[in-house]
Design goal:
- The chain is about 45% helix and about 15% strand.
- The protein has about 220 residues and is of the alpha+beta class.
- Among the domains are: about 60 residues, Arc Repressor Mutant, subunit A, CATH 1.10.10.10; about 80 residues, Roll (SH3 type barrels), CATH 2.30.30.
- It has a six-stranded antiparallel sheet. A two-stranded antiparallel sheet has the order 1-2.
- Helix 1 crosses helix 4, helix 4 packs across helix 5 and helix 4 crosses helix 6.
- The longest helix is centred in the middle third of the chain and has 23 residues.
- The N and C termini lie far apart (about 40 Å).
Length: about 220
């Protein structure tokens, strides 16, 4: 694959992840996710279009075959880096997410292959998001918000949208609301906040998070 400027990689990565979360990819959504100005996004989309990495249908932005290939490569390395830093180095979710944003641009093919071998060919990052190119099989899931009071659940996936919200990753990790952990919904509030029990702890989860966290119920 040709080498691309990190900015191109980050934009393709963002477009991929928004689409992965079933978000209609518009310039406004990209600006929000990347915390950059709309004019900056507009200029970069023009460049990506000229390079054959994206196409536009009205206001909706999609990756081309080349753009998706680039995005999958970057996302794969980001999620492998997160897995390596959490599993092998014992770093927190928050630190691993931040550092993986740097590693994703510099991991070589040989290092990627070695990481996959050392990690035992993982299929997800620590947050449960699939590693492109792995043997990941999507489980049947619902959002945490859809689980009825009294029902149990097992956390499956923390979507990318929550990784970019300040403090959310640390909150979820501290609360043990991690992929593979089980809990039970004990109450709901009119504002959409749900109360759950996980590992003997009781905590409230607001609607922004509960409507995105995927669980098996």
């Amino acid at each position: 694959m040709a080498e691309w400027h990190p900015a191109f990689e980050e934009y393709c990565e963002t477009i991929f992840e928004l689409a992965e979360d079933d978000v209609t990819v518009l310039q406004a959504r990209i600006a929000e996710r990347m915390d950059v100005s709309r004019p900056s996004v507009s200029e970069m989309i023009k460049r990506l279009d000229a390079e054959g990495l994206v196409t536009l249908s009205g206001n909706v932005i999609s990756l081309t075959v080349a753009g998706r290939s680039l995005a999958e490569s970057v996302v794969r390395r980001h999620r492998l880096a997160e897995r390596f830093m959490v599993d092998m180095l014992g770093l927190s979710w928050t630190v691993a997410h931040q550092e993986a944003g740097k590693w994703e641009h510099v991991i070589s093919d040989s290092v990627e292959t070695a990481m996959i071998r050392v990690l035992g060919d993982p299929t997800t990052c620590p947050h449960g998001n699939p590693i492109p190119g792995s043997a990941y099989l999507a489980p049947d899931t619902v959002t945490l918000a859809e689980v009825a009071v009294g029902d149990e659940f097992t956390v499956s996936r923390i979507p990318e949208a929550l990784e970019f919200e300040p403090g959310v990753l640390q909150f979820l990790e501290d609360a043990h609301l991690l992929p593979g952990r089980s809990g039970r919904v004990t109450a709901t509030a009119p504002d959409g906040t749900i109360t759950i029990e996980v590992d003997g702890r009781t905590l409230g989860v607001g609607p922004f998070a509960s409507e995105r966290i995927l669980v098996s119920a």
